[in-house]
Write a structure and sequence with these properties.
Blueprint lengths: L1 H19 L42 H5 L13 H28 L5 H37 L4 H34 L1 H39 L5
Helix pairs in contact: 1-3, 3-4, 3-6, 4-5, 5-6
Bound molecules: fe (ii) ion (FE2) (2 copies).
The site of one fe (ii) ion has 4 residues, from helix 4.
Length: about 230
């Protein structure tokens, strides 16, 4: 049961971080009636996969990172609480994706009961999708334009990150449709739900891989700009 305990702790940590950015901070113990995710269609297997960007950002996007290396950020006087909270949200997204993946593993090895899995998939899947979508929509519309105004040398890096957001949206949409399908199948045809939960597992692994690439590059590009121009303090 170690994985379950870890998953529960990760959920609490994730929700604590999410609270810092003023989005849903309901605790696991409070979750009430089931709420299906966005799409209600039972529309077939969702097996498409999305290639995660393999190449790092170009070297000229890292010029400020050399002056503001990651291990020096915590002690920098311009490392404001708002920057730390933004990075905390990134930690929370990773934890939520891992939580859904670990829950799926527990269901697939029959450690987690079907109705518990469906309830948690509905709740945490919804939390992951809505908060990730809200986060990167805010980055595209407000945060990145602020950074571009402050230092246009890094616009091409921001464009790569915006393209990542588009890929992430596709992935989240596929995940949402498949999760809805599994939640419904849990009541209608549990063996089929179990079979299709394997797809959920693969999709959470893809989300994790995309987040690994995207969030590290995003922080390496953005935090030095914020420190250099004393922004968001
Ligand atoms: Fe972000
Ligand atoms: Fe982002």
């Amino acid at each position: 049961m170690k994985a379950e305990v870890t998953a529960q702790r990760n959920a609490d940590d994730a929700l604590a971080h999410l609270g810092h950015i003023n989005i849903c901070a309901q605790r696991l113990s409070d979750f009430g009636p089931l709420k299906l995710l966005w799409c209600n269609n039972i529309c077939g297997f969702m097996t498409e996969t999305l290639a995660v960007r393999q190449e790092a950002l170009p070297e000229d996007m890292r010029v400020l990172l050399r002056d503001y290396p990651r291990d020096a950020w915590p002690d920098h006087p311009n490392f404001a609480a708002s920057i730390q909270n933004w990075m905390g949200a990134h930690v929370a997204f990773r934890q939520l994706a891992e939580l859904v993946k670990l829950d799926t593993e527990l269901y697939l090895d029959r450690t987690r009961a079907p109705e518990d899995y469906a309830a948690r998939l509905s709740y945490f899947g919804n939390l992951l999708v809505r908060n990730l979508h809200g986060h990167h929509t805010w980055e595209d519309r407000k945060f990145f334009p602020e950074l571009s105004d402050a230092d246009p040398r890094f616009d091409s890096g921001l464009e790569v990150l915006e393209t990542d957001h588009e890929g992430l949206d596709q992935l989240l949409d596929t995940f949402t449709r498949q999760a809805n399908r599994v939640v419904k199948l849990e009541q209608l045809d549990e063996p089929q739900a179990r079979e299709e939960a394997g797809l959920i597992h693969g999709q959470t692994e893809q989300i994790e891989a995309l987040l690994d690439r995207h969030l590290a590059d995003e922080e390496d590009l953005v935090v030095p700009i914020l420190l250099h121009h004393k922004m968001r303090g």
